[in-house]
Design a protein that fits this description.
221 residues, alpha+beta, C8orf32 fold, 7-stranded antiparallel beta sheet, two-stranded parallel ribbon, 8 helices, 41% helix, globular
């Protein structure tokens, strides 16, 4: 979590890299056997087991309904990961971790919870246009926060997947959150409480997302 900065809305991003990563995941392998072998060699069995559990989770839940996939994914990572600030975990004010980085640490902040849930659900076959990484203001905490939102249709009230309130609820019932903007691999929107909001471009304003997707591409090598 961090305070909002006006500069975050004017930074440049390219989504070509994320498309490449998603294409590599179309058979829900997530990462290659070579990469998994490297993880075992470099980090040991305990870390390897986290990746194998993740891969098993995605493989075994392909045939579930989207509603079941949402709950299973939300519960899986809320149970598996520990919340730790970027300053403590990465020695940086703000850092968006790749799924590999999050699993290596078995920890992350709200952005990291949201990012790994997002990519896991995509690997489970949930369409990208149903999912948004959504910045909100957590009113009780008086600070910025990120959640994952799901909408099956454009007019539907989004469901909120969160690491603070771990129960999936419609956005209209999350009075403790004030939506700001949301994005995914297909665009960026000024967010409203009860619907998708106004599209404001081709997701071209978030430097941290560019850095994240560039690192993910390197992890595939």
């Amino acid at each position: 979590m961090h305070r909002f900065s006006p500069s975050i809305l004017i930074l440049i991003i390219s989504f070509a890299s994320i498309a490449e990563w998603l294409n590599a995941q179309q058979n829900y392998i997530l990462y290659s056997e070579k990469k998994i072998a490297q993880i075992e060699q470099n980090y040991g069995k305990e870390v390897l087991d986290r990746f194998l559990n993740w891969k098993k989770f995605v493989t075994e839940n392909q045939d579930k309904s989207e509603t079941e996939k949402l709950k299973l994914t939300n519960d899986f990572f809320n149970d598996q990961l520990q919340w730790v600030s970027d300053k403590k975990l990465w020695k940086q004010k703000d850092y968006w971790a790749t799924p590999i980085e999050t699993l290596l640490k078995s920890a992350g902040d709200c952005e990291d919870f949201t990012i790994i849930k997002y990519f896991t659900l995509i690997s489970l076959g949930v369409p990208i246009d149903h999912l948004k990484l959504t910045y909100v203001k957590a009113l009780k905490l008086n600070q910025a926060h990120m959640v994952l939102t799901y909408s099956k249709t454009r007019r539907a009230v989004p469901l909120v997947l969160d690491n603070i309130n771990k129960k999936i609820l419609p956005a209209s019932k999350r009075k403790d959150l004030k939506p700001v903007y949301s994005f995914n691999g297909e665009g960026m929107w000024i967010q409203k409480q009860k619907n998708l909001g106004k599209r404001v471009g081709n997701s071209s304003r978030i430097r941290l997302w560019t850095e994240l997707t560039n690192r993910m591409n390197k992890e595939l090598l």
